[in-house]
Amino acid sequence: MPAHIPNGAMGRIPVILRLVLSGEDEEWWPGHAIRWTAGHVMVAWQQTPGDTASVRHIWLRATDVRRKISRPAISGENVA
Fold this sequence. Notes:
Strand order of the largest sheet: 4-3-2-1-5
Shape: globular
Structural class: mainly beta
Number of strands: 5
Largest sheet: 5 strands, antiparallel
Distance between the termini: 38 Å
């Protein structure tokens, strides 16, 4: 959680968020960034996709939130 929390929503940007579950399991979910600081992002996501009553809000580290996912370059691959 950030030291200073911005007041009110700052936007609604589509994102992909990484949730770390028990152990080392992780899941990637679609959501929306609604508040942010330099190091953290508050995201809204549906725990049950399509069910607006299942919307959850959580602060995540900025490193756990992406606007897109790119496949990593393969060694020796020509990347232009």
